[in-house]
Amino acid sequence: MAVLEVQGLTHLYGAKTARETAAVQDVDLRIEPGELLGVIGHTGSGKSTLIQHFNALLTPTRGQVLLDGADVNRDKQSRREARFRVGLCFQYPEYQLFEETVYKDISFGPANMQLPKDEIDRRVRTAAAFVGLDESLLEKSPFDLSGGEKRRAAIAGVMAMEPEILVLDEPTAGLDPRGRERILDMILRYRRETGSTVVLVSHSMEDIARVATRALVMNRSRAVMQGTVGEVFARGEELLQMGLDVPASTRIFLELRQRGVPVQTDVYTAAQGVDAFLRLLGKEARA
Amino acid sequence: MIRDITIGQYMPGNSFLHKMDARSKIVLTFAFILAIFFCKNFWSLGLMVLLSAVLVPVSRVPVRSVLRSLRPLIFILLFTAVLNLFYTKSGNVLWSWRFLTLTDKGLYTAVFMAVRILALVAVSTLLTFTTTPTDLTDGIERLLSPLKAVKVPVHSLAMMMTLALRFIPTLIEEIDRIMSAQKARGADLETGGFVRRAKALLPILIPLFVSSFRRAYDLAFAMECRCYRGGEGRTRMRQMRFTVRDGAACGVFALVIAGVAVLNFFFKPLI
Fold first, then answer.
1. Other C-beta atoms lying within 10 Å of the C-beta of residue A165
2. What is the tens place of the pLDDT at every residue in B79-100?
3. For A248, left (φ over 0), alpha (ψ -120 to 50), or beta?
4. How far is residue B95's CA from residue B103's CA, in Å, rounded to a whole number?
5. Which of A139, A172, A263, B107 is least crowded, fewest Cβ atoms below 10 Å from its Cβ?
């Protein structure tokens, strides 16, 4: 059974005024336990609005969001529960840091859950270890950390709530390649070790290709594609038409096919590219 | 709620009022406010109301927008009206109950005050509806420039005002974002007593201050990189010009003010 299910979700901004615009339109989505769903789309395609419905920060204009089959917008209690079961980490989360020490900041979420003190302590230390923050940094002021450390501390603040679903909005935005790698590795390790479901919002196809198991493509407030990463990137031409990027390896194979070389285009990592080339060369050698 | 602030809500347009010089618009708005306080009876007040009623279609700002800008006044209007109704003891008593007495004069005063406030706010919002914030502060700067002689940093004040206006929407957006982020971590902003709620604001205010300082620092740096060093010897991309249009507007205003004086003189004062 899907852990989170979105049915016919529509969200209008400025409803019933002249400026009414649909941010999300008729989106259906099922998130299975343990999967890593990548959400792809332009700025303004509705990605961020969509994920803010997962933890009931926004209320749908139409449609509903079900968590384990129950509507998250039932009442105040269910909304609050959704906040903790679906951990949402916003874009540029480092700007939400506010406490005197990193330790206190990471414990903000768990403390709001009214957990006992030793449980909070355990969660803070586990989360800090996941994001690779050294114990010695925990007593420092979050404002004294470097940019990358701040980002990781903020992500730890969401992980410390130990949500069943961790939703990250552009966690690698504005980081250098090494910082990106670090965050992606961290997400993969977190998922492997805790077995939780992860939703990763990104406009970087390379990131999605690297870590996601399934992908959802948003374009102009609608969900236009859904499927395994292979299925989605196999429709690379459509992605390009939407003005979205595709991974470099996919692009090479698309180009090859356009020039008449008989190749599959569901290639999205370098390793798959190598395999596909070897297959092709083997076939030609035999012929 | 926080989005309803109408400061600097410029509506792009091409009307007579839009094309007027910001300086004359500011001066005339002040003249209007002064004149409306000099009105002594319903006749002269009526003339001013007529003028503001004419200005709305001239500005081509939708009537609905003007009305919407008046909506926040409802409370103030009711409050002053009630005070005026029951605190005016002179005149013929219309109705009384225990300590409350209602006189015809009280009724007139209440209506008079309410109409006065409405016309005043309507005309001042027309100023902000038809003038860009930049033009507005430019206009204020030019009007105040004689004060430079007594060492008032007019240019810096105007620049500060421009920047403050510019950053209002940015800050509102920022507050929205930080609030959502803290709510996602289970921050509870709605329940609890006064102390608890005040405490719950800290996770929002601290990041807001931090990012405001960062923004201010970045902005100052960017301005210095473009060799900004205050108003000394600075020329403008858009010169302000006092045109025939402004002359005509001033003429109409002069006539209306003269009309107010005449009506005040010939009809008996109400208050």
1. 22
2. 888 888 877 777 777 777 777 7
3. alpha
4. 7
5. A139
State whether B186 and A88 contact (CB < 8 Å). no
Return the ∠ at Cα B71 (arms to B37 and B127), rounded to 5°: 55
Residue B29 pLDDT = 93
What contacts 24+ positions apart, CB below 8 Å, involve B144-151? none
pLDDT interval class at B2 (50, 70, 90): very low
Confidence of residue B169 (pLDDT cuts 50, 70, 90): confident
Q: What does the pLDDT look like over A136-162, one tens digit per residue?
A: 999 999 999 988 899 999 999 999 999
A254 located within any domain = yes
- Contact indicator for B57, B105 with CB cutoff of 8 Å: no
CA A104, A105, A109: angle at the middle one, nearest 5?
Answer: 100
Residues A52-77 have a mean pLDDT of 91
In the predicted structure, residue B1 carries a pLDDT above the cut 60: no
d(CA A70, CA B12): 47
Query: Does the pLDDT at position B6 exceed 50?
Result: no
Give the nearest partner residue to B203 out of A84, A89, A98, using CB atoms: A98
Rounded-to-integer distance, Cα A164 and Cα A84, Å: 8
Which residues of B fall within a CB distance of 8 Å from A52?
180
Overall average pLDDT of the A107-121 stretch: 93
For residue A82, the surrounding DSSP H or E stretch is: helix A76-85
* Confidence at A17, pLDDT banded by 50, 70, 90: low
A100 Cβ contact partners less than 8 Å away, ≥ 6 residues apart:
A141
Residues 6 or more apart from A72 whose CB is under 8 A from it? A54, A55, A56, A64, A65, A66, A78, A79, A81, A82
Q: Which residues of chain A neighbour B187 with C-beta distances below 8 Å?
A: 108, 112
Q: What's the domain range around A251?
A: 247-287
Three-class SS state of B76: helix
The answer to the question of residue A275 being in a domain is yes
8 Å CB contact of A96 and B207: yes
> Is residue A255, in this structure, part of any structural domain at all?
yes
Distance from CA of B50 to the nearest CA of A (A): 30
From A220-224, A232-236, B214-218, B235-239, the region with the lowest mean pLDDT: B235-239
Establish if A8 belongs to a structural domain.
Answer: no
Number of structural domains in chain A: 1
**Total beta-carbon pairs less than 8 A apart between chain A and chain B:** 56
Pairing type for strands A62-67 and A222-228 reads unpaired
Rounded Cα distance between B122 and B59, Å, is: 12
Residue reference for tokens 């930049």: B134
Produce one character per residue of B116-138: b if its CB has 16 or more CB atoms within 10 Å, e if not. bbebbbbbebbbbbbbbbbbbbb
- How high is the pLDDT of residue A13? 85
Interface check for A214 against chain B (CB to CB < 8 A): the answer is: no
Q: Spell out which residues of chain A touch residue B211, defining contact as CB-CB under 8 Å.
A: 95
pLDDT at B122 over 70: yes
Give the β-pairing of A214-219 and B93-97.
unpaired
